């Protein structure tokens, strides 16, 4: 994996079980100093044992400068990051992390905010709720989980100053407490912004329902924890990319991603998630038609056809000319 920019060293001050299969890590600066500030919705790149780099949302109060708090779901189907956090990272360990980045920021022009969290997707949503509460802003939060036992930060939320603005929805609970998306999203009120994070199926349902109910794209904000599978598909073909700066043409084989092929040709693009989620590798497209496979760009941005994520997206045309 290519480098992900400057890093800093932190120490795991505390590791705790927050719910079934969910643990949290409290990270403090290894030198005991203050950490860079962050805003609600931010995440950090965490360099884990085995050379794995993963993105985790910060879920503590943005006003805190002495620590970062992340929470991670153990996922047997993951590519190794969650297992490393649960099994290979311990209190007292040192890790390298990036400075906070934010691709999921609050819209300060919003008159009202609707926060929807699915499972471990509560991490950035909780941070947003705490920030909105401090601001005295109008918001409500809905938190859907498989069961109470799998609901991270349940007591923290119940004891918070904004507890009366949060509704919990459990898959194994009574039917009347289940999340009613069509009813909740029935009317897209002007000035209301929707934020959603969680498993892909949950997010697809929320965003699909919102769009069907007439919500505008400018009102919708989301962050995926996992995205495209960069593995080749049976019908993938070869194509070419041309570097605009030099005119050099590089062939992309069916079994290679653009970033892999470019790296083999000595052209490095900064990457991180390699799933089309984080936007680190976003590259301008000057000519050609893109086959978008990311979860980062909005439908409108994809339709504009002027940028793509080379870690997973491909080409529909024989050649893409890139701003490289």
UniProtKB/TrEMBL annotation:
InterPro entries the UniProt entry points to: 2Fe-2S_ferredoxin-like_sf (IPR036010), 2Fe-2S_ferredoxin-type (IPR001041), 2Fe2S_fd_BS (IPR006058), Beta-grasp_dom_sf (IPR012675), DmmA-like_N (IPR054582), FAD-bd_FR_type (IPR017927), FNR_nucleotide-bd (IPR039261), MRET (IPR050415)
Pfam families in UniProt: DmmA-like_N, Fer2
Domain called 2Fe-2S ferredoxin-type: residue spans: 239-324
Keyword Aminoacyl-tRNA synthetase included in the entry's annotation: no
Keywords: 2Fe-2S, Flavoprotein, FMN, Iron, Iron-sulfur, Metal-binding, Oxidoreductase
Coiled coil: none
Cofactor(s), by name: FMN
Molecular function (Gene Ontology), one example: oxidoreductase activity
Location of the FAD-binding FR-type domain: 5-107
SUPFAM superfamilies listed in its UniProt record: 2Fe-2S ferredoxin-like, Ferredoxin reductase-like, C-terminal NADP-linked domain, Riboflavin synthase domain-like
PANTHER family, sorted: CARNITINE MONOOXYGENASE REDUCTASE SUBUNIT, NADH OXIDOREDUCTASE HCR
Protein name (database record): Oxidoreductase
Organism the protein comes from: Azohydromonas caseinilytica
